[in-house]
């Protein structure tokens, strides 16, 4: 027996944000586990519908964050995430026939970062959050968030110098294979 | 292409869902929380996120509880992350500045407050008072418009507890005579009590001399053509020093001018960011840590120590790391006493007419 207004509101929230929560879940736990994470998140939203603010996305991502951390604490998540990060680089490399893609370099570098750093960087770059909302999702002050973000960017930049070399080398070996056929 | 853009462009397609599961399945879940409650963990994140207790029960079912208002915080997000060096703080401020949106307007409005420590009192027992006044400057960006300031004397008081004791010994005066240029009384007084607001037109001001960079006039046109990279900005400033014949130590001048750019001049966010980045590479800039300005606003401070004729002074810049906004500059003498300050509160462009009364 559901209140029709509740159902309408929940469906609106779901439609507005389902894809964004899914994207966040993939980036934190891999595609393998994403559907479950999204489902868990929206069950919480359904049960606590009264607590969901109008600007629902940061709230939903905060819940998803909890879900990822609590439900997929170790091996399952590590395995799923590692496969995901590799898939990103493979997808980027497959996009371009020749030459090293910038995207592959970025994604390869991103894969070497700590989980926390990756989350900070992608909350704004991929999940479209403002800095203020991103700070809310990770649970720190905006000022702290900026300091952490600055450090994460620096580490990404450093990783990219290294990743560029790896990508270049792997692309070169691909070319020589082609030649020898 | 900068790092932010590269990162945004690299967003994998795998992040996008290929289908939309029917929400009806979720809405079929019972909403009553009288299912078995097992208070396994309580997680509270700051801000909007509610407390949720999650039990991994194999299926999608979750039992949850509402947390009390002041629930415990998860260990790994407590604590404030502070910049470790002046260099880092200034780079953070640069990043924050550059994401601001450039705006323009008829007037550049600069609400400031100035403070100065003055020596007063009888010859046998001199002491110091801090005199304060506010000045909200309306600086015209269009030729033909008048510039003015809304000023107010905010009063004066003994600068320290020791000064207060001397002031009492002096009979607790509510005003102090201002000496003239030759030391004899000028007939004017510093007043302890604040005065009324008044309008002061800036005579002879136009868009070529309205704005001061490091104390010397700079035109609005020059400001709009400043380089937006740190190296370019430094070269531009060094050239300016040469043209103007400024001979103070180079790093000190660069710091002083960068301060103008971030604190009170109508420049683009990119230029402000460049100024911070230039500052970050100067030697002699140290991180002081958390600081509050004379209005009680909190931020982080960097300091530059300058050895001048009157001894060494510490020049402090207080920055809000969250916004990249420079809040205040303060000068301290070699004894660490606050000698003067300027703070800026709410600068920006405005299109409306300046106040007339």
What is the fold's blueprint, element by element?
The complex is a heterodimer of chains A (181) and B (357).
Chain A: H1 4-29, H2 31-47, H3 56-71, H4 75-95, H5 102-112, H6 115-125, H7 131-138, H8 142-180
Helix pairs in contact in A: 1-2, 1-3, 1-4, 2-3, 3-7, 4-5, 5-8, 6-8, 7-8
Chain B: H1 3-9, H2 24-27, H3 86-98, E1 107-120, E2 127-140, E3 148-158, H4 161-169, E4 175-179, E5 185-191, E6 197-201, E7 211-213, E8 216-218, H5 220-224, H6 230-244, H7 250-263, H8 269-280, E9 285-292, E10 298-308, E11 311-320, E12 325-332, E13 338-344, E14 348-350
Antiparallel strand pairs in B: 1-2, 1-13, 1-14, 2-3, 3-6, 4-5, 7-8, 9-10, 10-11, 11-12, 12-13
What would you note in describing this structure?
The complex is a heterodimer of chains A (181) and B (357). Chain A has helices at 4-29, 31-47, 56-71, 75-95, 102-112, 115-125, 131-138, 142-180. In chain A, helix 1 packs across helix 4. Chain A has 181 residues and is an all-alpha fold. In chain A, 82% of the residues lie in helices and 0% in strands. The longest helix of chain A has 39 residues, at 142-180. Residues 173-181 of chain A have low confidence and may be disordered. With 357 residues, chain B is α+β, with helices and mostly antiparallel strands. In chain B, 22% of the residues lie in helices and 31% in strands. Chain B has helices at 3-9, 24-27, 86-98, 161-169, 220-224, 230-244, 250-263, 269-280, and strands spanning 107-120, 127-140, 148-158, 175-179, 185-191, 197-201, 211-213, 216-218, 285-292, 298-308, 311-320, 325-332, 338-344, 348-350. In chain B, the strands form 3 sheets. In chain B, strands 1, 2, 3, 6, 9, 10, 11, 12, 13 and 14 form a 10-stranded antiparallel beta sheet that branches. Chain B is globular. The interface between A and B is large, with 71 and 55 residues.
């Amino acid at each position: 027996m559901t209140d029709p207004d509740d159902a309408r509101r929940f469906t609106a929230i779901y439609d507005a944000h389902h894809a964004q929560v899914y994207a966040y879940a993939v980036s934190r736990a891999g595609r393998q586990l994403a559907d479950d994470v999204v489902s868990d998140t929206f069950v919480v939203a359904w049960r606590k519908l009264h607590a969901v603010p109008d600007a629902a996305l940061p709230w939903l991502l905060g819940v998803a964050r909890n879900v990822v951390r609590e439900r997929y604490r170790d091996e399952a998540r590590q395995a799923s995430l590692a496969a995901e990060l590799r898939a990103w680089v493979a997808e980027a490399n497959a996009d371009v026939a020749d030459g090293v893609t910038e995207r592959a370099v970025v994604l390869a570098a991103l894969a070497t970062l700590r989980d926390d750093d990756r989350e900070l960087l992608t909350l704004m770059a991929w999940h479209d959050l403002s800095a203020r909302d991103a700070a809310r999702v990770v649970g720190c002050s905006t000022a702290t968030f900026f300091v952490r973000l600055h450090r994460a960017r620096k580490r990404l930049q450093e990783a990219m110098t290294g990743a560029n070399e790896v990508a270049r080398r792997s692309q070169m070996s691909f070319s020589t294979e082609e030649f020898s056929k | 292409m900068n790092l932010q853009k590269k990162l945004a462009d690299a967003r994998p397609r795998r992040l996008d869902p290929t289908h939309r599961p029917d929400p009806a399945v979720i809405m079929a879940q019972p909403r009553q929380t009288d299912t078995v409650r097992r208070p396994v963990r309580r997680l509270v994140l700051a801000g909007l996120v509610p407390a949720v207790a999650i039990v991994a029960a194999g299926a999608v079912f979750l039992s949850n509880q509402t947390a009390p208002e002041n629930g415990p915080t998860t260990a790994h997000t407590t604590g404030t992350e502070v910049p470790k060096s002046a260099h880092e703080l200034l780079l953070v401020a640069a990043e924050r500045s550059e994401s601001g949106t450039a705006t323009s307007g008829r007037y550049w409005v600069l609400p400031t407050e100035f403070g100065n420590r003055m020596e007063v009192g009888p010859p046998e027992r001199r002491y110091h008072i801090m005199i304060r006044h506010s000045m909200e400057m309306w600086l015209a960006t269009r030729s033909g418009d008048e510039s003015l300031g809304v000023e107010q004397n905010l009063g004066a008081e003994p600068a320290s507890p020791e000064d207060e004791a001397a002031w009492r010994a002096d009979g607790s005066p509510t005003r102090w005579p201002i000496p003239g240029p030759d030391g004899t009384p000028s007939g004017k007084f510093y007043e302890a009590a604040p005065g009324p607001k008044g309008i002061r037109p800036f005579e002879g001001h136009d868009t070529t001399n309205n704005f001061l960079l490091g104390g010397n006039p700079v035109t609005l046109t020059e400001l709009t053509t400043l380089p937006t990279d740190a190296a370019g900005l430094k070269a531009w400033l060094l050239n300016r020093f040469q043209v103007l014949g400024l001979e103070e130590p180079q790093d000190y001048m660069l710091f002083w001018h960068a301060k103008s750019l971030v604190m009170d001049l109508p420049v683009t966010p990119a230029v402000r960011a460049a100024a911070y980045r230039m500052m970050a590479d100067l030697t002699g800039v140290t991180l002081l840590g958390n600081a509050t300005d004379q209005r009680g606003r909190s931020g982080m401070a960097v300091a530059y120590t300058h050895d001048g004729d009157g001894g060494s002074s510490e020049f402090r810049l207080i920055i809000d790391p969250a916004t990249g906004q420079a809040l205040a500059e303060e000068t301290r003498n070699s004894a660490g006493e606050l000698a003067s300050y300027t703070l800026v509160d709410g600068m920006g462009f405005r299109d409306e007419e300046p106040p007339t009364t």
